[in-house]
């Protein structure tokens, strides 16, 4: 550590834990300001140009306001690819990678028709289209802003995904296409959970992507499962990311709706995070 990284760490420790401040300081110096990593590690004195100094001050100001580093950098890593992100879309989470991995594993070398509901940055839809090149992927979102970002990501990552503006909660959605897979990571946080949320999520990420309307934890799952009865092919499957507090409720609801082979699956933290079921 040299005096530059120490200074950055000290500044950030007013807002972040020592570990977070250290990781952020290294990321800022090596990845964002493009300083020589060897100089940083060997403690060589670094003199910043006026413009780099300005850039650094700007990054620190934004971080002190709890802005997520992914929004500041403009991208987030997900399933081996870099996705553009901005405050209009949720930052892809590592748990969601597990959902993608599960679908990929179960459809390798196949050509499934896939529908991703509430695509946000497009991370699920685009990752599936990349990993399953024969898949035909459609993705819905209610937000025009999200669709613009998702379209940009699909072009940058060179996959063909059909994006459609759609409010899944609206009655009367019909589709000429039927799907082998419906996947969704819908908003699933309840009003009462706000208190436990980090400022970088609560103050920066889109409310519409986080909080379920009417404080009804099953709202999106019920609606999507209902839609699945019409939109899924006879052997089609549904894959959900869920709020860890509602695994049993989502399972029971799917059972009542006559879905079969329902499984609630833990994420790598050991929390029930995914549900899959067959039509
Ligand atoms: N897992 C996200 C979080 O904890 C929430 C994602 C969602 O609501 N679908 O912030």
UniProtKB/TrEMBL annotation:
<keyword id="KW-0949">S-adenosyl-L-methionine</keyword>
<feature type="binding site">
    <location>
        <position position="185"/>
    </location>
    <ligand>
        <name>S-adenosyl-L-methionine</name>
    </ligand>
</feature>
<dbReference type="InterPro" id="IPR004556">
    <property type="entry name" value="HemK-like"/>
</dbReference>
<dbReference type="GO" id="GO:0102559">
    <property type="term" value="F:peptide chain release factor N(5)-glutamine methyltransferase activity"/>
</dbReference>
<feature type="domain" description="Release factor glutamine methyltransferase N-terminal">
    <location>
        <begin position="6"/>
        <end position="74"/>
    </location>
</feature>
<dbReference type="Pfam" id="PF17827">
    <property type="entry name" value="PrmC_N"/>
</dbReference>
<feature type="domain" description="Methyltransferase small">
    <location>
        <begin position="106"/>
        <end position="190"/>
    </location>
</feature>
<feature type="binding site">
    <location>
        <begin position="118"/>
        <end position="122"/>
    </location>
    <ligand>
        <name>S-adenosyl-L-methionine</name>
    </ligand>
</feature>
<dbReference type="InterPro" id="IPR007848">
    <property type="entry name" value="Small_mtfrase_dom"/>
</dbReference>
<feature type="binding site">
    <location>
        <position position="141"/>
    </location>
    <ligand>
        <name>S-adenosyl-L-methionine</name>
    </ligand>
</feature>
<comment type="similarity">
    <text>Belongs to the protein N5-glutamine methyltransferase family. PrmC subfamily.</text>
</comment>
<dbReference type="Pfam" id="PF05175">
    <property type="entry name" value="MTS"/>
</dbReference>
<dbReference type="InterPro" id="IPR029063">
    <property type="entry name" value="SAM-dependent_MTases_sf"/>
</dbReference>
<keyword id="KW-0808">Transferase</keyword>
<dbReference type="GO" id="GO:0032259">
    <property type="term" value="P:methylation"/>
</dbReference>
<protein>
    <recommendedName>
        <fullName>Release factor glutamine methyltransferase</fullName>
        <ecNumber>2.1.1.297</ecNumber>
    </recommendedName>
</protein>
<feature type="binding site">
    <location>
        <begin position="185"/>
        <end position="188"/>
    </location>
    <ligand>
        <name>substrate</name>
    </ligand>
</feature>
<comment type="function">
    <text>Methylates the class 1 translation termination release factors RF1/PrfA and RF2/PrfB on the glutamine residue of the universally conserved GGQ motif.</text>
</comment>
<dbReference type="InterPro" id="IPR040758">
    <property type="entry name" value="PrmC_N"/>
</dbReference>
<dbReference type="InterPro" id="IPR019874">
    <property type="entry name" value="RF_methyltr_PrmC"/>
</dbReference>
<dbReference type="InterPro" id="IPR050320">
    <property type="entry name" value="N5-glutamine_MTase"/>
</dbReference>
<keyword id="KW-0489">Methyltransferase</keyword>
<dbReference type="InterPro" id="IPR002052">
    <property type="entry name" value="DNA_methylase_N6_adenine_CS"/>
</dbReference>
<dbReference type="GO" id="GO:0003676">
    <property type="term" value="F:nucleic acid binding"/>
</dbReference>
């Amino acid at each position: 550590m040299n005096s530059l990284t120490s200074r950055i760490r000290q500044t950030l420790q007013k807002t972040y834990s020592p570990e977070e401040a250290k990781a952020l300081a290294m990321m800022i110096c090596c990845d964002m300001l493009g300083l020589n990593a060897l100089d940083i590690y060997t403690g060589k004195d670094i003199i910043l140009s006026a413009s780099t100094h300005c850039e650094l001050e700007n990054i620190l100001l934004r971080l002190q306001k709890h802005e997520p580093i992914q929004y500041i950098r403009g991208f987030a890593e997900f399933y081996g690819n870099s996705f553009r992100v901005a405050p209009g879309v949720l930052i892809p989470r590592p748990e969601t990678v597990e959902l993608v991995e599960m679908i990929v594993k179960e459809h390798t070398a196949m050509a499934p028709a896939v529908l991703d509901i509430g695509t946000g940055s497009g991370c699920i839809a685009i990752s599936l289209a990349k990993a399953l090149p024969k898949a035909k992927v459609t993705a819905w979102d209610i937000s025009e802003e999200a669709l613009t970002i998702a379209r940009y990501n699909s072009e940058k990552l060179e996959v063909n995904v059909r994006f459609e503006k759609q409010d899944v909660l609206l009655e009367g959605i019909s589709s000429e296409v039927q799907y082998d897979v419906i996947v969704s990571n819908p908003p699933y946080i309840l009003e009462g959970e706000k208190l436990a949320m980090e400022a970088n999520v609560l103050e920066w990420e889109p409310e519409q992507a986080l909080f379920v309307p009417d404080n009804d934890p099953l709202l999106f799952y019920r609606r999507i499962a209902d839609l699945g009865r019409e939109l899924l092919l006879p052997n089609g499957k549904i894959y959900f990311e869920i709020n860890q507090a509602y695994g049993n409720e989502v399972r029971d609801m799917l059972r009542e709706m006559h879905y079969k082979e329902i499984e609630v699956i833990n994420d790598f933290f050991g929390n029930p995070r995914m549900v899959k079921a067959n039509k």
